[in-house]
Amino acid sequence: MDCLFNEQQIMVRDLARKIAQEKIKPVAAHYDETEEFAWPIMKILSDSDLFGVYIPEAYGGLGGGITEMCLVTEELSKACGGIALGFAGTGLGTFPILLYGSEEQKKKYLPDIAKGKRLAAFCITEAEAGSDAGGIKTNAKKDGDYYILNGTKQWITNAGEAEVYTVIAMTDKAKGARGASAFIVEKGTKGMEFGLKEKKMGIRASATREVIFTDCKIPKENLISKEGMGFIVAMKTFDNSRPGVAAQAVGIAQGALDVAIDYARKRIQFGQPISSFQAIQHMLADMGTQVEAARALVYATARMVDAGIKDVARDSAMSKLFAGDMAMKVTTDAVQILGGYGFMRDYPVEKFMRDAKITQIYEGTNQIQRNVIAAHLIKESLKASK
Amino acid sequence: MNIIVCIKQVPNTTDVKIDPVKNTLIREGVESIINPFDTYAIEEAVRLKERFTGKVTVVTMGPPQAENALKEAISLGCDEGILVSDRKFAGSDTWATSYTLACAIKKIGAFDIILCGKQASDGDTAQVGPGISTHLDVPQVTYVKKIEEIKDNLARVERMTEEGYDIVETPIPCLFTVVKEINTPRLPSLKGMMRAKSAKIIQWTAADINADPKNIGLDGSPTRVVKIFTPAPRKGGEILKGDTADVAKQVGTLLKDIII
Asked: What is the predicted ipTM?
């Protein structure tokens, strides 16, 4: 797919690949086992300027876009989908500022994020507000020059490790979705605490915690855009970040496929490598084709976003849906090809399979993606028939 | 602080072939990389710059394609690259090479520290670093594993030995050759790679660096390679048999024979 990318994008991809293969791959099993946050790897990503690939040059970034972000996420995920989230989750937390932040907010936060000095996190999900984001209970009450935040956010990626949090909270409950607003909260703000680290099935190197606000007082300058814009900020953020999740899924699937092919060439049964059996060959062929199809969709979507196309919700949802389901299937098949060894934690494919599952769940379940896609398809058809 | 790093581009394999006639290495068709030992010198130079501020100039003698090695060094944080390249340098041994690099360094001007890898992975001589210091008449410390302190025109370093390490204090300017224990080289940064892409590499010929034609290239090289061969594998040792006292006696006799 080299012909689809420019020179800078290939440079970004190759550097991310080098870091992933040389620095992340050897420690992926360790961080999966211990569930520690991979700060030494974050340092390497930061020193290599990778955190800034999608941030404009004016704010200390490289000036690339979603394509660069996806390339980095995919490469890192080939080695570890959990460690990749330190990078991708920061992207998710940064988009509200990047897309809707004021000049002052951009100047204040983006340079540090671009340098990798501070990680970011996005806080929307709550115990009773998952797919139904309208059910958010966390509220922000205006009090003079401040807002007072109360409520609990759940399953927040990078929580506890990140320094910059973008938070969706209700400023006017009566207005429903139109009563939500987006805020920036810095770690260390009084009244902001973190819950216990969650024990997860996959992406265990990624930190997931509750973020608890108790009379947390933040300056009114930390409001992103205007009151009532919270839901739009969140939806546009997801439109931009979903190709990143899709890229993570592609990376995880590719990582598993690489192991499966290598294993199939070396595993001898009935006196020959199992790669000589058509049963295995056809599985590998399907897996390879599915990965490439998902990759093509992901980067087509990323290019749409970078080209400034206004409504990418449909394509963004399609890439996340297709890549997530694909990753689950391909990693499951990779475990199957490795057989009993695939089931053992001594081999990396069971981890890929565990890591793949989340890509069907977070940033909108794949069922929600289908709702989004169907709504768009029907709306487009209605428009055309008028 | 002005830091100079001398690097060499080498073939990326330990399995290079030797020209049976000329008794020199065949470099064609083999991917070229920065001599792995030199990557530690580059990293240490960049760390010194980060510690004390200053400028890192990286210099190499080699054919035109050695420019790639200099660009890679720039992507790793070096500021400027100088390629000393001239057909007249062909066939240089370690004496002529260190003379040539010393001439280039004189042209660069004032420096505080020169860093070299302890040896090159192709020739394995470990002579060029010490050679440069001799030609420039500055102190040298070889096999440096840590630069402890640089203060008041003195540098205190740890020098690796077979038994442990020495702590050596030397006036600067001086030259260090470094071992791999000194650091873990970083990966390039994107900004470094972009800087490297647009960086202009300075090219100097023999005339540019005022090198005496008698001292460069094959003519300036006192080394004559008579023959290159793979040494015969070492024969197996001898296992002494008997009870402890008997074996001790045998060892005693053997040692006496060796020493006297």
From this structure: 0.79
